[in-house]
Amino acid sequence: MARILLIDDDVELSEMFKEYLEQEDFEVVAAYDGETGLHEALSGCYALIVLDVMLPRMKGIEVLSRIRIQSRVPLLMLTAKGDDLDRIVGLESGADDYVPKPCTPRELAARIRAILRRTQTQDGAGAGNKAITLFPLVIWPEKRRAEWHGAPLELTSTEFNLLEVLAVSAGQVVSKNELSEQALGRPLARFDRCIDVHLSSIRQKLGHLDDGRAFIVTVRGKGYLLIKE
Amino acid sequence: MGRLFWKFFIVFWLAFLTAGTGVGATVWLWHKMQAQETNHGVAIRHSAHFVRAASAVLKKGGVATLKDFLHEWNDDHAPPVVVVNEQDEELLGRRISAGALAQARQMANSENYPNAVREVTADDGHRYLLFLLAPETSFLHRHDHPAGLPPRDFFSFGPRPPLGGRPPDKPPRPILPIIAGTLTSLVFSALLAWYFAKPIRNLRSAFDELSKGHLHTTVAPLMGNRRDELADLGRHFDNMAAQLRMLMDAQQRLLHDVSHELRSPLARMQAAIGLAYQQPEKTAATLNRIERESQRMSDLIGELLTLSRLEAAETNTLNEEIEISGLLDEIVEDARFEADSKQVSIEYAGIEEVSGQGSGELIHRAVENVLRNAVQHTAPGTTLVMAAKFDHNQRQLRVTIDDQGRGVPEDELTAIFEPFFRGSHQDKRNSTGLGLTIARRAVALHGGKISAANRPEGGLSVEMAIVLAPIPGKA
Q1: Residue A84 pLDDT exceeds 90
Q2: In terms of Cα–Cα distance, which of A167, A181, A153, A216 is closest to A97?
Q3: What are phi and psi of A127, to 5 degrees?
Q4: What string of DSSP letters covers B308-353?
Q5: Strand order from edge to edge, sheet including A2-7
Q6: 3 state SS of B233
Q7: Highest mean pLDDT among A108-122, B14-28, B63-77, B149-163
């Protein structure tokens, strides 16, 4: 049973979400303000964090970036419907995915499951030690570990998923929709910039190849391609 | 260059040209008249010589010689010397008006004009009268003074230019000054037109920018150091743009806040619906929740409409006759219901009977909103104190409401009246976030003020000053 931390200042809403998610076999702890939420999130005993980025006072985005300084725990953010700026800033700050609020609890539960499926199954089956090597990148999918030039990469779970999908089919163009399905567990919505934001974040963490080329290439109108020597 | 520039330019230029031409023509005419007068004077002065010469020719050479002589003279455009015999026949057959002739004979007889008019007995025995006709614009045909040459002209032989000397200097050709004047007027009218048209063009482009939604447009920097009505216009434009910007920002903020405020109950409704699907046995409870949330949304929308109605309201619509003490009693009575559930008591001593002009509904809303806000924020089990006073001189109603809550941080004391203000420690569950905003607007419409202060003994004190116009016809 996965433990989930819900950070939202709307007490009534949190209670209802909690009730719903508990029926869906999640264990839910609610925090009603940023400080408590940050403290709980960093305790390390949650499989996933749901964060309302519209928190008053200590802004949700600030909580998010402070969580990311210390932890790579999967994080789903609740954003205002129609507020693209919040969404992009949130993804850039390291959120794994977002759900626009107001949302139905079913949508929320589905999104939580999609993220957990990717992270947990592999965590559990971490016995294997098979590595995908695409010098200078090495990925151990079972361990959810990646190295760049021998140095470990700090990736969020969604970033890791995306990199893994690209690495498995290295040398081939992977469409954005495919990336979304495989890495986020959901089809790509129209005008969704989620994949682009995550990929630009991965690129920043990777840097360029020795000869100055980008390791991940954008194929306009088609998708992304990981270079295979 | 816009049309305005060309209009200014052409008008200024025409004005310059007209003025120039007018002055030039006047000067020219004046000069011409002077010259004419001079010529005329010269002619008169010399008339005596002509007459004397003609008479000498007649005496010495006879009639035939004089005839030749006169013919020659006429060809030279010399002044016409007239020679008339006793039968009033002119020697060369020219027609002389009877009046002029009579005048000449009279002048000959009067002896006053010994040189201008002469009578000579010629070799053929006839007596001839010799005199000179005045030039074209002659007075000879005038009845009052036919020979009209004032006597002194015939006798004054003062210093005068030698006749037949070198010709007078030709006046300079007028082409050069005309070209210079035209060019100068062109330059000056262009400058003037530019001076007027430029700030107007600047204003126009600023208006264009503004209408495209660029509210940060300013004109004042383009006006430079200019100080006149056009520069004032620019400054007024900037003020207007700033005002618009402020209003637009406020509207944007309000829209943003409203959508946020509507989103919260909507999110709770969706969550409740989700729960109802998941646990059909709890449908009754979730329906209850949904109803509550939809009531909140409906309240919020109602308050929003009230606020927008108040924003658009004019002060002159507040002409209702209201009785204050009853109104306040009613509000306190209503609030006690809500206060009781929180074990909060309301202390209110009442006010003497006061009536005035205003809007009963608005005053009711203002006081009620502030009072309910106090009930919400005071600690459970405490007492609220409401006091009302009426100042008859200033016709001002002062209502103060003191609570025993946690108060408001000093830097948020004015912000609490802004729409959807969320204080640092405010429980917003039961408020729409518009109550105090509506109160402020309602008080402002009555020409009053609302202010909040932290009480030294703890809690918040809100004071409303409402001006009530006297009822017409009552002292």
Answers
A1: no
A2: A181
A3: -75, -40
A4: HHHHH--GGG--EEEEHHHHHHHHHHHHHHHHHTTT-EEEE-----
A5: A26-31, A2-7, A48-52, A75-80, A97-101
A6: helix
A7: B14-28
Q: Output the six-digit token pair for A162.
A: 């995306």
| Complex ipTM > 0.95 | no
Instruction: Tell me the chain B residues in contact with residue A20 when contact means C-beta distances shorter than 8 Å.
Output: 271, 274-275, 278
Instruction: Compute the distance between CA of residue B107 and CA of residue B89 in angstroms, rounded to an integer.
Output: 18
Nearest Cβ partner for B275 among A10, A16, A103? A16
The secondary structure of chain B in percent helix, strand, coil, rounded to multiples of 5, reads 55, 10, 30
Contact B136, B178 (CB under 8 A): no
CB contact under 8 A, B424 and A57: yes
Residue type, B385: V
| pTM for the structure as a whole | 0.60
Contact yes or no for B263 and A80 at CB 8 A: yes
* Token pair listed for A199: 């990929």
Chain A CB contacts of B275 under 8 Å are 16, 19-20, 105
Residue in this structure with the two tokens 């005008």, named with its chain if needed:
A191
Instruction: Indicate the residue of A10, A20, A82 with minimum beta-carbon distance to B264.
Output: A10
Map residue A7 onto helix, strand or coil. strand
d(CA A178, CA B260): 34
CB A39 within 8 A of CB A14: no
pLDDT 10s digits, B52-86 = 888 888 888 888 888 888 888 777 666 677 888 88
pLDDT, tens digit, 9 for 90 and up, residues A64-75: 989 988 888 899
Which range is most confident: A55-64, B56-65, B265-274?
B265-274
Cα B453 to Cα B325: distance, rounded to the nearest angstrom: 25
